[in-house]
Amino acid sequence: MSKFGELIETKVPVLLDFYAEWDEACKGMHPVLRDVAAALGDKARVIKIDIEKNKELAEALRVKGLPTLMIYKGGEMKWRQSGEQDANTLIGLVKEYV
User: Fold this and answer.
1) Which of 67, 74, 76, 73 is nearest to 49 (CA)?
2) I need a labelling partner for 78 at 20 to 30 A (CA). Which of 8, 14, 55, 63 fits?
3) Is 8 helix (H, G, I), strand (E, B) or coil?
4) How far is Cα 24 from Cα 31, in angstroms, rounded to an integer?
5) Is 74 helix (H, G, I), strand (E, B) or coil?
6) Mean pLDDT over each residue of the chain, to the nearest integer
7) pLDDT, mean of residues 64-72
8) Is residue 8 within 8 Å of 1, Cβ to Cβ?
9) More confident residue, 1 or 69
10) Selection from 24, 26, 63 nearest residue 48 by Cα
């Protein structure tokens, strides 16, 4: 869990994508998140977290639906939603915290 603290304790916003390889909606989000990361550049970070490999973290954050997206800044959760999102929506949301 301490690694998670290091991930979210940053000056730039961090968009976390909790996903599973077997989930179709999560697979659909891969190119969207690539676009978001490309559009935001070094203004933010986009991090994908496989819930199968990080069960403890997913349980601690009560990740139920997939994909679950979260935005953190300075170690604090600013936004969270489950389900697919489009790139423009995510870019706009993250920019609010840049």
Assistant:
1) 67
2) 55
3) helix
4) 13
5) coil
6) 96
7) 97
8) no
9) 69
10) 26
Distance (Å, whole) CA 36 – CA 65: 21
Kindly state the DSSP code that residue 41 receives in the 8-state scheme: G
Q: In sequence order, which residues have a C-beta less than 8 Å from that of residue 4 and are 6 or more positions away?
A: 57
Structure tokens at 76: 């604090």
DSSP, collapsed to helix, strand or coil, labels residue 60 as helix
- Helix, strand or coil for residue 97? coil
pLDDT digits (tens, 9 = 90+) for 15-42: 999 999 999 999 999 999 999 999 999 9
In contact, 50 and 19? CB cutoff 8 Å: yes
How far is residue 6's CA from residue 74's CA, in Å, rounded to a whole number? 10
